[in-house]
Automatic annotation (TrEMBL):
GO molecular function: DNA binding
Name the UniProt record assigns to this protein: Integrase
Domain of life: Bacteria
Alphabetized InterPro entries for the sequence: DNA_brk_join_enz
Annotated SUPFAM superfamilies: DNA breaking-rejoining enzymes (SSF56349)
Length: 290
């Protein structure tokens, strides 16, 4: 959170927490107000580093010159042993650590980021084939009949590749129904007829476009990712399809709807093309096409 600052009197408390390797106290002090899920995630990412630093007597506020070489062990170790962490786990731990140091610089606790320059392994690409278009349609048909709220959310994800964070923050004021547009973080998306139809029942419940034009209330109001993921998992089960995650639903959208990049939330055409090729590649693994 860029606008969060530690009260001056608490900087000494923060420094003491570092000397005692109390990551559970440090995370909320540096990141400010977090959901329980996000706080637990950051603590989990940093814990191996703090535990190893405590064991080795490494001061994380003023690490030694060979800090990057030392980082290899805590970043790459899991419960299965040394060098067992996958590339994405290593990256997640590292970027959380780097962000921690950026917060410390912001608070004038340190003057440079000792994590910068660490050689992070390239991220993994999933080789699991995507659900078929028929499976997606089967899920959407079930949701349309049984859960209008989840149907609208799933349709927006599939039609326009909404990220979960976009979905979570989405308000009625982001829609311009007179032009069929959705204002997103970096672009304006022209909504498909199917997306507009999926949102229509919720719009009617909210009072129609004249009453929602300046409405800043969240549309979906999911408390956390589980509040979205669990009902989606149950719907997949009831619809008779395999579990389809938000990520898979979004990738299927990139595969099934090769629209203009802006309509899928992309400003950079190259990034859109990479994402589209990745989704198409996963689909080919399912069908055995070359």
């Amino acid at each position: 959170m860029t606008d969060w600052h530690i009260p001056t009197q608490n900087v000494e408390v923060l420094t003491r927490a570092f000397s005692q390797y109390e990551v559970e106290r440090i995370v909320p002090m540096l990141w400010g107000s977090l959901t329980n899920h996000r706080r637990h995630q950051y603590i989990t990412n940093l814990k191996p580093i703090f535990e190893q630093a405590n064991a080795d007597g490494i001061g994380l506020l003023s690490p030694p010159p060979d800090f990057h070489a030392w980082l290899d062990a805590p970043l790459r170790t899991t419960l299965r042993g040394p060098n067992t962490a996958k590339a994405n786990t290593i990256s997640t731990r590292y970027y959380t650590l780097r962000t921690m140091y950026e917060h410390l610089i912001r608070e004038d606790v340190i003057t440079r980021n000792p994590a910068l320059g660490y050689n992070v392994p390239p991220g993994e690409r999933s080789s699991t084939p995507l659900p078929t278009s028929q499976e997606i349609e089967k899920l959407l048909a079930y949701l349309q009949k049984h859960d209008p709220l989840l149907f609208a959310a799933a349709t927006l994800i599939h039609e326009h590749a909404l990220q979960y964070t976009e979905l979570e923050r989405l308000t009625w004021s982001a829609f311009d129904f007179s032009q069929g547009l959705l204002l997103r973080n970096r672009t304006a998306t022209r909504l498909s007829d199917r997306a507009i139809a999926a949102v229509q029942p919720l719009l009617s419940q909210a009072g129609g476009p004249l009453h929602t034009e300046d409405d800043s209330r969240k549309i979906f109001g999911f408390e956390n990712r589980d509040a979205f993921r669990l009902p989606l998992w149950k719907a997949c089960k009831n619809a008779g399809v395999g579990n389809i995650s938000h990520r898979e639903l979004r990738l299927c959208g990139l595969r099934d709807h090769p629209q203009h990049p802006q309509d899928l939330g992309f400003v950079n055409g190259q990034a859109w093309e990479r994402a589209r090729r990745h989704a198409a590649g996963l689909a080919q693994r399912l069908t055995g096409e070359e």
